[in-house]
Write a structure and sequence with these properties.
Helices cover 14% and strands 46% of the residues. By secondary structure, the chain is mainly beta. It is rod-shaped, with a radius of gyration of 41 Å.
């Protein structure tokens, strides 16, 4: 098998500037059409064997952030900076463009406005237009960001593949998506498209030792720092929600079981009753105790519960009260409270238990501002009469999880997502504020950063 012959890398060629006599290095000899003298900034035509002076300037070369001739590796390819342009838009700001060259990969552009860096490649295809504000390239869509504006070359240095000149103008427009931008430039002769991908500060520092730029406001194609983890966070939240829901359904509680019933003393004296035995089968469980007083009206019942382990005599205590009031005033009849009461005891070990209830019935004083309603019985007796047969009905059920724990877990899981979502929206609003077009909504959650 014959060896594959790669094209030879162009040699560095030294030229003499016709304007100042300075030695000018031509790094992409055979590819470059023009070069700018680093000493006097004169533009030279090097396409002809006889180097010709195109334009002569006395402006000295600026101190560049990336000196021409510097080499750095970006996305696995070593590039050499061979040209520099400073451009500005009428009515807008200025930006810098460095021309990179590799003999096997051609040209690329390094573009910065002081906030970050992008690597641009000229396209050989024209993006498809979905509508006035949307372009499509491959399977990616780009939203219109900057309106048509005139861009002017303010300063040049180095060598280029066309005859660049200070004052050269093109009409440009930009479309952006998180991580990438499409730029269109046109003049009287041609229309060109460039796709620029955002570079990280670390990439530029590793490749060319460039310092980090300003971080605000966001660049047009700068992805929200919260977008990537928000997408993953919502997936985790959904999975945890389903898991918690399954756990609540599986271990949230059993059906209610009657533990017993007992009468309320008509004289309002305190009494004690022992119910049981009640068996708890889980290693640990929460225990819910529900009491109902069907005839309760304009009064209350205090209920002190003690779960006593028959084997260890360990006691688990809880307090509850059922209260119900009704009456009428100038606004009409009213009611408040409930004839039922429910309490929970957490982490009760397995075993057989007695439920000891200390309870006392109470009447609402007839001397209250409102007049209690009693049906067919003296006001001073109220609901605590043998006629009403006041009694307390107690039921018990067990479970491994509290429903409140489910909501607390969801709040704890959702709080970081809510904070991240707020920051994401704020970031995208700041990014959209830089656009010439009204915002059409913030970037989709979890949008991937295009770093190709």
């Amino acid at each position: 098998m014959a060896d594959i012959q790669l094209p030879a890398a162009p040699a560095v060629k030294a030229l003499a500037c016709p304007a100042c006599g300075g030695s000018v290095e031509l790094r992409a000899a055979g590819y470059s059409v023009s070069v700018v003298c680093q000493y006097c900034s004169s533009i030279l035509d090097v396409a002809d064997p006889q180097v010709k002076l195109i334009a002569q300037y006395n402006q000295a070369a600026e101190a560049l952030e990336i000196p021409l001739g510097s080499r750095g590796t970006l996305r696995g390819v070593e590039w050499e900076a061979i040209g520099y342009m400073q451009r500005s838009a009428y009515g807008g700001g200025a930006w810098d463009e460095y021309l990179l060259f590799n003999p096997y990969h051609g040209y690329r552009w390094l573009i910065t406005d002081g906030r970050g860096w992008s690597l641009g490649e000229q396209l050989t295809v024209t993006p498809l237009r979905d509508d006035y504000e949307t372009l499509r390239l491959g399977n990616q869509t780009y939203q219109r960001f900057y309106e048509d504006s005139t861009a002017r070359v303010d300063y040049v240095l180095g060598e280029f593949y066309w005859r660049v000149a200070v004052g050269e103008e093109v009409v440009g427009a930009d479309w952006a998506r998180p991580g990438a931008m499409l730029s269109r430039e046109k003049n009287a002769h041609e229309v060109s498209w460039t796709r620029s991908v955002l570079l990280t500060h670390k990439e530029m520092a590793d490749a060319f030792g460039v310092r980090k730029g300003a971080s605000w406001p966001p660049m047009p194609h700068q992805p929200s720092p919260n977008a990537a983890w928000l997408g993953m966070g919502f997936k985790i939240f959904a999975g945890m929600f389903l898991l918690l829901a399954v756990l609540i359904l599986a271990f949230g509680g059993t059906s209610w079981t009657s533990a017993g019933r007992f009468p309320v003393a008509p004289d309002g004296s305190e009494r004690t009753v022992t119910l049981g035995p009640i068996h708890f089968g889980h290693l640990y469980q929460r225990v819910e105790i529900r009491a109902d007083v069907p005839t309760l009206e304009n009064g209350w019942v205090d209920l002190d519960y003690s779960l006593v382990d028959r084997r260890t005599q360990q006691v688990y205590e809880a307090y509850g009260a059922a209260e119900r009031y009704s009456g009428s005033d100038s606004d009409g009849p009213w009611t408040e409270g409930s004839r039922g009461s429910s309490v929970s005891v957490a982490s009760v070990p397995a075993g057989d238990y007695d439920l000891v209830v200390d309870y006392k019935g109470n009447r609402w004083s007839s001397g209250s501002l409102y007049s209690p309603r009693y049906v067919g019985m003296p006001e001073d007796l109220g609901w605590m009469t043998p006629v009403n047969k006041p009694e307390v009905v107690v039921e018990v059920r067990t479970g491994a999880l509290f429903l409140s724990s489910f909501w607390i877990a969801l709040i704890l899981l959702g709080l970081p997502l809510l904070i991240g979502l707020i920051r994401h929206i704020q970031f995208d609003k700041a990014r959209q504020a830089e656009s010439d077009f009204a915002p059409t909504g913030f970037a989709a959650l979890g949008a991937s950063e295009d770093d190709e």
